[in-house]
Amino acid sequence: MTLKYSRQREAVKQFLMTRRDHPTADMVYRHVRNEFPNISLGTVYRNLTLLANLGEISRLRLGDGVDHFDYDTHPHIHFVCSRCKSVSDLETEETSLINESAVKHFDGQIEGHFTYFYGLCPRCNENRPKSR
Questions:
Q1: Is 74 a residue whose pLDDT tops 90?
Q2: Quick count: other Cβ atoms within 10 Å of Cβ 57?
Q3: Mean pLDDT within 107-117
Q4: What share of the chain is helix, strand, coil (3-state, %, to 5)?
Q5: How many angstroms separate the CA atoms of 83 and 125, rounded?
């Protein structure tokens, strides 16, 4: 599929390239609006959806009712803080082990996966009340 070049879509991609916090459409909109004051949230969301459908970005559904977006599309694991709801990449030695294990125990064809770990991020963990 050949797409006509869009400065707005390119601005969305450029913004996502600079972020590691997996922003929502609203966060992307607030940033891109600085460069394109007349852009609508709907236009931003349509461009995010298009880029996700093309595989240029990843759409993350974390159970909070809001889509988050990630420019990094290689297989990796995400961490979601249960308290502040921040999303970050979780560096691990080997994500391919998950795929290998799944393939061993499944007769169908696996095309990919999303893995989320939940808990307290370092900041929330440090600020939690200490038990006596």
A1: no
A2: 22
A3: 87
A4: 40, 15, 45
A5: 9
One domain for residues 120 and 79 = yes
How many independent structural domains does the chain possess?
2
The boundaries of the domain holding residue 50 are 1-73
Contact 65, 104 (CB under 8 A): no
What amino acid occupies position 125? N
- Edge to edge, the sheet with strand 77-81 lists 87-90, 77-81, 115-119
Is the CB of residue 58 less than 8 Å from the CB of residue 112? no
The model carries a pTM of 0.84
Cβ burial, residue 36 (10 Å; 0-12/13-18/19+): middle
Position 132 scores a pLDDT of 61
The amino acid present at 114, given as its one-letter code, is F
Q: 122 and 65: one domain?
A: no
C-alpha neighbours within 13 Å on the C-beta side of residue 11: 17
Instruction: Report DSSP state, residue 26.
Output: H
